[in-house]
Amino acid sequence: MVRSFDYAAYATLFGLTSSRGRATGVVRDEDRPSLLPWVQAWRSWTHNACLDGYLEVSAGADFLPRDDEERNVLFRVLLLDQLLMEMAKQLPTGSAWLEIPLLGILEAVASLPG
Questions:
Q1: Which long-range contacts (C-beta less than 8 Å, at least 24 apart) are formed by 76-81?
Q2: 70-106 burial, b for 16+ CB within 10 Å, e for fewer?
Q3: Which of 81, 76, 83 is CA-nearest to residue 98?
Q4: Which of 16, 24, 48, 70 can bridge 11 by disulfide, Cβ–Cβ 3.0-4.6 Å?
Q5: Which element (helix H / strand E) includes 22?
Q6: CB-based contact 79:112 (threshold 8 Å)
Q7: What is the distance, to the nearest Å, from the Cα of residue 113 to the centroid of all Cα atoms in its chain?
């Protein structure tokens, strides 16, 4: 679910076309740099809201580690696994959609502790 927010934000920003057609609206190339911080802020907010809601609903469940640090590590591993699968799917196609998982991987690596 968290990754779908990235696709919604970046597909619109980059004007990508899917099997359903082009994203609504057109963002001019010269406007992208000034819109990128807003995209990142929206993504951050939606990621946090989604994860907070998920953790609230699943609190005490046996399938989640009770320790915050262990939950964080689990989330990061699952996220990186998903990002690598997305990248592997897009890599052979040479599609512009490849940029979205690559941006996610860069962000995930940059946010690693230490």
A1: 76/108, 76/112, 79/2, 79/3, 79/104, 79/108, 80/105, 80/108
A2: eeeeebeeebeeebeebeeebeeeeeebbebbeebee
A3: 83
A4: 16
A5: strand 21-22
A6: no
A7: 19
